[in-house]
Amino acid sequence: MALIAALYSPVKALYGAHRTNAVLAERLDAATASATQLQGEVDSLMTREGIEDEARRRGYVGEGETAVEVGGIEDSGSATTDESVTGDSSQTQGQDAQDPWYVSVLDFIFGYDPSTQGVG
């Protein structure tokens, strides 16, 4: 019993560091994917065709063109949406539901809560 009591604190610190690293790695992956997507959009907008497509999407027309409003269809353009710009963290929060059962048990045993560990 004394051995368990003596080892609890170091094992708790090691587990907390491991879990914090995993949470931060997930966030880094999500941020990297978002940055890659946004860079692709920037690259497409750096071409003449990309600029013209974005201008048309926003309702501008070129010389000799006529603007027409079409209703009832959704825009499938590649322009940035508010959701991708705001960095929606629901993907990271949804990871908790994907963790194996024993992670929840270990979190409880070691009192680990990502929101109180500076990563939440």
Structure commentary:
The chain has one domain. Helix content is 64%, strand content 0%. The chain has five helices and no strands. 1% of the residues are buried.
Question: Topology of this protein?
Answer:
Elements: H1 2-45, H2 48-57, H3 82-85, H4 90-98, H5 101-110
Spans of at least 5 consecutive residues whose pLDDT stays below 50 are none
Radius of gyration: 24 Å
Number of strands: 0
Number of domains: 1
Q: State mean pLDDT (0 to 100 scale).
A: 80
State the separation between the terminal residues, measured CA to CA: 34 Å
Shape: rod-shaped
Order of helices and strands: HHHHH
Q: Counting H and I runs of at least 4 residues, what is the number of helices?
A: 5
The major pleated sheet works out as: none
- Beta-strand residue fraction: under 5%
Task: Looking at this protein, list some descriptive labels.
single chain; 120 residues; mainly alpha; 64% helix; 0% strand; rod-shaped
Question: What's this, in brief?
Answer:
The chain is mostly helical. It contains five helices and no strands.
